[in-house]
Design a protein that fits this description.
By secondary structure, the chain is mainly α. Helix content is 58%, strand content 11%. The chain contains five helices and three strands; from the N terminus they run H-H-E-E-H-H-E-H. It has a three-stranded antiparallel sheet with strand order 1-2-3. The longest helix is centred in the first third of the chain and has 30 residues, at 26-55.
């Protein structure tokens, strides 16, 4: 008798080798996604800052919605004016925070969605660093009521990135057996 050839679905041992040549490892895909998010944040941040600089005179305020104004101000501190005028402290703080973020991400890149807040935080930090290197200060332009300090899209990405990161870490801790 002749053996019957199986021309159906690949066996479990064959499947990973065939699929692995087409798919990136999870950690590599996460790094790429984080990089794309960071790039999107940087581009949106820099374009919005240039638009404000070319359309509003520094110190002028324009109402866009009730309670929301556009302004053109410079911030020498970190997000929302924290640590103003302390360039060395700001640089050290940003460097330490980014290093800690990258170490955490490298150790946890395979975790679901961890790339999203990582990209937002990197993009926000780099968007503001570009301003510091170019102008010596960060351009802030969104002003909310009640004395809230002006901020920009990079600051928003950083703030939202921190919230999402903490929510993901909390979710992952609760999901562990």
């Amino acid at each position: 008798m002749r053996p019957i050839e199986d021309r159906g679905q690949p066996t479990a041992s064959e499947e990973p080798s065939r699929g692995s040549s087409r798919r990136l490892p999870v950690a590599v895909a996460a790094w790429i996604r984080a990089g794309l998010v960071a790039l999107a944040v940087i581009v949106a941040d820099q374009l919005s800052k240039r638009a404000i600089e070319h359309s509003i005179v520094r110190g002028e305020e324009r109402k866009v919605l009730p309670g929301i104004q556009l302004v053109d101000t410079r911030n020498r501190g970190v997000a929302f004016g924290f640590l103003p005028g302390s360039h060395v402290a700001v640089t050290i703080l940003i460097a330490v925070a980014l290093l800690a973020l990258l170490v955490y991400f490298a150790r946890n890149a395979e975790k679901p969605l961890i790339w999203l807040p990582t990209g937002m935080l990197l993009g926000g930090a780099l968007g503001n660093i570009i301003d510091r290197l170019k102008d010596g200060a960060v351009t802030d332009f969104i002003k909310l009521p009640l004395g809230w300090p002006p901020f920009n899209l990079a600051d928003s990405a950083i703030t939202l990135g921190i919230v999402i990161l903490f929510l993901l870490i909390d979710h992952l801790r609760r999901a562990e057996p």
